[in-house]
């Protein structure tokens, strides 16, 4: 299946292919001032990190890295775009006309676990070329990592049972496409969204909504649920899933089995108190001989509702609102800060927003059992510290060199598998849904105090 992002050329010629306007005006007005005083040409390092995890969660999941790299590659201004920028002088327009990011990017790969102050992305180049990438980088990483972090918690709560992403009608039409990608990265099994399936080669799932059942009535206007089910079976096969809660669930299950027989693939329930309802439906299905018919539930599920259903006979979960919107996937709170200028560490020192200056990389230490112990953040060029009996793994990896995406970047499927393994390295208490300290502490090692 073709991945749409793979078809984007390195040198876009239309605004549809350029990511350059995915930015804020002040990025370009700052650039104009930087060109005027010469600071645009200073070598800097900028860092993406989160000062804290939202809602005191125990860990986050990095997502959007590949999309960021492609956005940086395609951050090139067209003549049509520049013609509309009357607020810029000719020097700045000429700079943007020739703009191509030519620097280096290192960071955490997609699917990696992160914690407060993890150096998720380090962008190195001139101040001018790094400055104007802030908005597009943060918009992608904050959104995708928020969804992936929420989805990962749901996957853990589901304890091996599959989850389908169903959020298409709960957010902006293209936002759900990237949300579906992030949810799949985090362990969801499928999406209902065809564009997400086409663009990212994600399995797509879906059968029928309540509208289908409601559209079938007798001549006198009374409901004809059986007719709806029968046509669905004839069209999609007996392995389809029938939505049984449009009217009366017990009657719906009875009708579904009557039409499909013991080989019916599944029934879906989208309302009610799902715990007691699924127990009654499972009992009814078994009594009717449908021991292999699966029960699919939806209806505003989040990780807490999924965890609450762990002891009930649910086979598949459908999740929408809580994984694609801020209600369940609050912003990751990532920021993009200049941390080094011409080799000198710099840092913001305002109250509650203090940070450590200097370009950084990270290693993570592990016990012999494979459980993570600590994340050590080091100056970028510093050697690894002694870790005693603990093993250490490099977390920071090269992502872009001289403006070109590194070869052999992990595929979405490989990143999905990586996240699944990374989760198993967390201490067991780190998987709890309760609010608490990060599952793995982060410690700065080898930094000198940053001057004010």
From TrEMBL:
Database matches in Pfam families: NAPRTase, NAPRTase_N
Keyword entries, A-Z: Glycosyltransferase, Ligase, Phosphoprotein, Pyridine nucleotide biosynthesis, Transferase
Pathway annotation from the record: Cofactor biosynthesis; NAD(+) biosynthesis; nicotinate D-ribonucleotide from nicotinate: step 1/1
Domain Nicotinate/nicotinamide phosphoribosyltransferase: 164-358
Modification after translation (UniProt): Transiently phosphorylated on a His residue during the reaction cycle. Phosphorylation strongly increases the affinity for substrates and increases the rate of nicotinate D-ribonucleotide production. Dephosphorylation regenerates the low-affinity form of the enzyme, leading to product release.
Domain Nicotinate phosphoribosyltransferase N-terminal positions: 21-142
GO terms of molecular function: glycosyltransferase activity; nicotinate phosphoribosyltransferase activity
Family matches, as CDD domains: NAPRTase_A
EC number: 6.3.4.21
Family: Belongs to the NAPRTase family.
GO biological process, one term: NAD+ biosynthetic process
Protein name: Nicotinate phosphoribosyltransferase
Reaction catalyzed: 5-phospho-alpha-D-ribose 1-diphosphate + nicotinate + ATP + H2O = nicotinate beta-D-ribonucleotide + ADP + phosphate + diphosphate
Gene source species: Corynebacterium striatum
Keyword Heme in annotation: no
Enzyme class per UniProt: ligase
Chain's role: Catalyzes the first step in the biosynthesis of NAD from nicotinic acid, the ATP-dependent synthesis of beta-nicotinate D-ribonucleotide from nicotinate and 5-phospho-D-ribose 1-phosphate.
């Amino acid at each position: 299946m073709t991945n749409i992002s793979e078809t984007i050329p390195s040198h876009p010629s239309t605004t549809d292919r350029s990511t350059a306007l995915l930015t804020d005006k002040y990025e370009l007005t700052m650039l104009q001032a930087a060109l005027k005083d010469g600071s645009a040409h200073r070598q800097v390092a900028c860092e993406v990190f989160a000062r804290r995890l939202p809602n005191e969660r125990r860990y986050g999941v990095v997502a959007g890295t590949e999309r960021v790299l492609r956005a940086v590659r395609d951050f090139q201004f067209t003549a049509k775009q520049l013609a509309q920028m009357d607020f810029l002088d000719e020097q700045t327009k000429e700079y943007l006309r020739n703009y191509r990011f030519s620097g280096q990017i290192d960071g955490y790969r997609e699917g990696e676990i992160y914690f407060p102050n993890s150096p998720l992305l380090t962008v190195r180049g001139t101040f001018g070329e790094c400055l104007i990438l802030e908005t597009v980088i943060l918009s992608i990483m904050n959104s995708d990592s928020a969804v992936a972090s929420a989805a990962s918690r749901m996957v853990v709560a589901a304890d091996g049972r599959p989850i389908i992403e169903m959020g298409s009608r709960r957010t902006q039409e293209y936002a759900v496409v990237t949300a579906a990608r992030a949810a799949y990265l985090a362990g969801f099994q499928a999406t209902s969204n065809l564009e997400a399936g086409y663009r990212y080669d994600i399995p797509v799932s879906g059968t029928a909504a309540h509208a289908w059942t409601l559209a079938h009535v007798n001549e006198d206007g009374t409901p004809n649920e059986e007719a709806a089910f029968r046509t669905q079976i004839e069209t999609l096969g007996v392995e389809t899933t029938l939505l049984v809660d449009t009217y009366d669930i017990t009657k719906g299950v009875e009708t579904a089995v009557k039409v499909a027989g013991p080989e019916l693939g599944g029934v879906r329930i989208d309302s009610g108190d799902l715990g007691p309802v699924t127990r009654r439906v499972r009992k009814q299905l078994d009594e009717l001989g449908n021991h292999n018919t699966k029960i699919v539930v939806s209806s505003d599920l989040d990780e807490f509702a999924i965890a609450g259903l762990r002891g009930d006979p649910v086979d598949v979960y459908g999740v929408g609102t809580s994984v694609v919107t801020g209600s369940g996937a609050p912003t990751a709170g990532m920021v993009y800060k200049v941390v080094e200028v011409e080799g000198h560490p710099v840092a913001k020192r305002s109250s509650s927003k203090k940070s450590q200056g200097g370009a950084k990389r990270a290693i993570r230490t592990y016990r012999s059992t494979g459980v993570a112990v600590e994340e050590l953040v080091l100056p970028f060029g510093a050697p690894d510290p002694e870790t005693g009996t603990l093993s250490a793994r490099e977390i920071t990896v090269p992502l872009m060199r001289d403006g070109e995406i590194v070869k052999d970047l992990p595929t979405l499927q490989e990143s999905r598998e990586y996240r699944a393994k990374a989760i198993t390295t967390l201490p067991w208490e780190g998987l709890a849904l309760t609010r608490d300290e990060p599952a793995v502490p982060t410690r700065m090692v080898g930094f000198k105090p940053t001057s004010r």
